[in-house]
Amino acid sequence: MLLLVRAPQTAESAPGRGPRAQLLGAQADLCPLLHTQDQILRPDQQEQRTRAMSSPGAPSISFGALKPKRKTKKKHFVQQKVEVFRASDPVLSVLMWGVSHSINDLSQVPVPVMLLPDDFKASTKIKVINHLFNKENLPGQFKFKEYCPQVFRNLRERFGIEDQDYQVSLARSAPLKDEDRKSVGLMLTSYDHTLVIKEISSEEVEEMHSILSEYHQYIVTCHGSTLLPQFLAMYRVTVESEDTYLLVMRNMFSHRLHTHRKYELKGSVLSREASFKEKVKDFPGHKDADFRKNVQKVHVSVEEKEKLMEKLNRDIEFLVRMRIMDYSLLLGIHDVERAEREEEDMDSSGDEEEEGENGLGPLCSTSPEGIPGYMNSLKPLGPGEFDPYVDVYAIQSAEGAPRREVYFMGLIDVLTQYDAKKKAAHAARAVKQGAGAEISTVHPEQYAKRFRDFFSKIFA
């Protein structure tokens, strides 16, 4: 038995009956009509019927007597195949099911003319209880909650992401886990590498709620032109009475171009060097000290640098207003010549298309479904080329640069507010390292100034 219980805030649709269930139910209601055999009359029979109906005293003619001798085939509906949300982790299976159900439900709800304050507090909840369910696909019992569905739908629209593409990217195939991630919690990438799903804490859910209204207004004001994360949805998945909070964002790296090197930069070198264990990984995450040691520079044109600095200054002012600090610049670098050599080696070995070493992108464009969309299937892309509508964080290196590269730059970890805990951590580190040390836990204004100064120096 399947039982769906929904909170009052949900759309006005019957519990447990999404568009697919409603369609099949409507088909079932029509079956008696469609199973009725067609009545076929010859011209002389039609004339006889007309005369009989026009004569008041004439006996009525039974249509059974006028049936043709040949039999008419009955029409039968073939029920559509039910989607199976199969993943190795039950949390992922429920996430895929929940996203598909949520998007289907949202498609039945009119888009509001404007968002109201209540939309920033709203949520939808679904509880499924079915002890006979096939646990290879979904758990016997689970809950799925979506936070502020209308707000995030509006944000997806402003970021140029269609709901159906979003649904395909997350629910068509299971997201991929980042096995190299050292911190606690899930870090996932959608199968087409366009979305990132990050597990967050309940405190971060509260922080997200506290800035969501201002974040939405900021995205409206800057028309989506920002280095901030593109927040697309926030969910809670409950399996076996354990809650998992998930935040969905656009992937800052390309779905198509390999990211050969990556840095997480805070503008501080104190304790900001990748460990030996990190450096020996196939795709290590380097830090500020590594950036300086490698004499790494970003080679972009003067025009691109001005655009980046304008975005960064605007974004940092917003973060200061929100009392946010401890964020990082995520910098990914795609080496075009190296990618060409890798592709030639793969072609010469006769291997089929496979994922790159970092698992962040195939060598060719993905299936023309999901967020990459049909544009990639219609527009062939050469080495180092990208679709700016999909890879929105990508920037080409300038002509005449030492290497032909593509850079991916964006701000991450923007849900840390300067609260009592951070103030205490700042005081403790200041005592230990000295007041003038470049520690990361400083108040937002000081953090922003240091970050801005560092960012301006990464360019050649």
From TrEMBL:
One of its GO terms (biological process) is phosphatidylinositol phosphate biosynthetic process. The lineage of its organism: Eukaryota, Metazoa, Chordata, Craniata, Vertebrata. Residues 1-20, 340-363 are annotated as: Disordered. Residues 342-357 have a biased composition (Acidic residues). It catalyses: a 1,2-diacyl-sn-glycero-3-phospho-(1D-myo-inositol-5-phosphate) + ATP = a 1,2-diacyl-sn-glycero-3-phospho-(1D-myo-inositol-4,5-bisphosphate) + ADP + H(+); 1,2-dihexadecanoyl-sn-glycero-3-phospho-(1D-myo-inositol-5-phosphate) + GTP = 1,2-dihexadecanoyl-sn-glycero-3-phospho-(1D-myo-inositol-4,5-bisphosphate) + GDP + H(+); 1,2-dihexadecanoyl-sn-glycero-3-phospho-(1D-myo-inositol-5-phosphate) + ATP = 1,2-dihexadecanoyl-sn-glycero-3-phospho-(1D-myo-inositol-4,5-bisphosphate) + ADP + H(+). Pfam families: PIP5K. GO terms for cellular component: endoplasmic reticulum; plasma membrane. It is an enzyme of class 2 (transferase). Its EC number is 2.7.1.149. It comes from Oryzias melastigma. GO terms for molecular function: 1-phosphatidylinositol-4-phosphate 5-kinase activity; 1-phosphatidylinositol-5-phosphate 4-kinase activity; ATP binding. It comes from the Eukaryota. Keywords: ATP-binding, Coiled coil, Cytoplasm, Endoplasmic reticulum, Kinase, Lipid metabolism, Nucleotide-binding, Transferase. It is found in: Cytoplasm; Endoplasmic reticulum. The keyword Coiled coil applies. Its main location: cytoplasm. Residues 295-322 form a coiled coil. InterPro entries: PInositol-4-P-4/5-kinase_C_sf, PInositol-4-P-4/5-kinase_core, PInositol-4-P-5-kinase_N, PInositol-4/5-P-5/4-kinase. This is Phosphatidylinositol 5-phosphate 4-kinase type-2 gamma. Residues 87-459 form the PIPK domain.
